[in-house]
Specification:
There is one protein chain. The protein has helices at about 10-15, 20-45, 50-70, 75-100. By secondary structure, the chain is mostly helical. The chain has a domain at about 30-100. It is elongated and about 45 Å long.
């Protein structure tokens, strides 16, 4: 995200964000991973690893589309949150199922 801030097109598209807006742009990327860790173990036990991986991948794809067509902070922040929130779902559930195969 820091590299994007140097582009004049990006600056004008998002109306020259500063301070707290830039913090929200950057902070939502890592914040989602914290939230998902709270319920990940329960979700894997309840619905299974495969469904968790599929659901996480689908939600990440939706987040990518939201971020691709975002026209402001209101769309970018939730899309980055949904992407980062579901990355651990795929990583942890995928690693667990890989360990069971061996």
């Amino acid at each position: 995200m820091n590299g994007m801030q140097t582009l004049t097109y990006w600056q004008s598209y998002f109306h020259h964000p500063t301070g707290a807006q830039l913090g929200l742009f950057n902070g939502t990327q890592g914040l989602g991973g914290v939230f998902s860790q709270l319920f990940l173990w329960w979700l894997v036990e309840k619905i299974g690893r495969k469904l968790v991986i599929i659901a996480g991948a689908v939600i990440i794809i939706i987040g990518v589309f939201l971020q691709s067509f975002a026209n402001g902070l209101v769309m970018v922040s939730p899309s980055r949150l949904s992407e980062s929130d579901n990355r651990p779902l795929i990583a942890v559930a995928g690693d667990s199922s890989h360990a069971l195969v061996q």
